[in-house]
Amino acid sequence: QVQLVESGGGFVQAGGSLRLSCAASGNIFNTDVMGWFRQAPGKQRELVAGIISGGSTNYADSVKGRFTISRDNAKNTVDLQMNSLKPEDTAVYYCHRRGFWGQGTQVTVSS
């Protein structure tokens, strides 16, 4: 079992920044692949960014150059720095690890 707790969501104006954090506990390993997903109303959940144990990352085309994913294996956390936010980034953001999901955190970007 893995527990994931997200934090850092909120309301921001377009062009602003937010930093999301996900703290993991339970049956976890430093080799785990971790990722951030998001789901906007009426849309499917989509991958935003992923990071493997060696630090390699991948991003959705829509967030490349604006978002940065990072991990701290000592703290069992994965963060998502989101800059130059756009209204279309509005969604519930979920942390994912070993098949488990966090409860989600709302990000709302106003135009």
Average pLDDT works out at: 96
Taking all Cα atoms into account, the compactness measure Rg is 13 Å
Count of DSSP strands: 11
Q: What percent of residues adopt helix (DSSP H or I)? A: under 10%
Secondary structure class reads mainly beta
Q: In terms of quaternary structure, what is this?
A: single chain
Note the beta-strand portion: over 45%
Largest sheet: 7 strands, mixed
Order of helices and strands: EEEEEEEEEEE
Walk me through what this model shows.
- The chain is mainly beta and 111 residues long.
- 0% of the residues lie in helices and 55% in strands.
- It contains no helices and eleven strands.
- Strand 7 and strand 8 form a beta hairpin.
- It starts with a strand and ends with a strand.
- 32% of the residues are buried.
- The mean pLDDT is 96.
List the defining traits of the structure above.
globular, seven-stranded mixed sheet, single chain, 0% helix, mainly beta, four-stranded antiparallel sheet, 111 residues
Element layout with pairings:
Blueprint: E1 2-7, E2 10-13, E3 18-26, E4 34-39, E5 46-51, E6 57-59, E7 67-72, E8 77-82, E9 91-97, E10 100-101, E11 105-110
Parallel strand pairs: 2-11
Antiparallel strand pairs: 1-3, 3-8, 4-5, 4-9, 5-6, 7-8, 9-10, 9-11
Please give a quick description of this structure.
This protein is an all-beta fold.
